[in-house]
């Protein structure tokens, strides 16, 4: 069985950071993801997908990601339901993120948003790339930081 989701889109507003009663951080945000086709009027449409990031990843997302930022999210789809105050059953679909990456060069973001990649390691080493960003040798934008001139038609997605 496989439950894997990969999304690329823009944050619709700043992430909201909360803590559970046990002190575990959880950030939630919504990602606007363009559909690969246009509607009958020739306009692009988007899906608005709720994302949840836990623990260190959630804190990092809340601290460094802002409305409008282009990001990639990897995770799993989670469907849950609960009963609201009126007694109606509410069904919620969201992506539980275990990796979130910035997709814009440093020259395209404010200096306060320094950093390139953040991920949640759910396993063996207990580590992850949470805070200081990538080393310069791994940063594809370290050389010049100039925008890349590429059309949407050249992208594979």
Automatic annotation (TrEMBL):
* Gene Ontology MF term list: single-stranded DNA binding
Which terms does the UniProt entry file under GO BP?
Answer: DNA recombination; DNA repair; DNA replication
Where would one find coiled-coil regions in this protein?
none
Q: Where is this region: Disordered?
A: 112-157
Q: What does this protein do?
A: Plays an important role in DNA replication, recombination and repair. Binds to ssDNA and to an array of partner proteins to recruit them to their sites of action during DNA metabolism.
| Oligomeric and partner information | Homotetramer.
**Name of this chain's protein:** Single-stranded DNA-binding protein
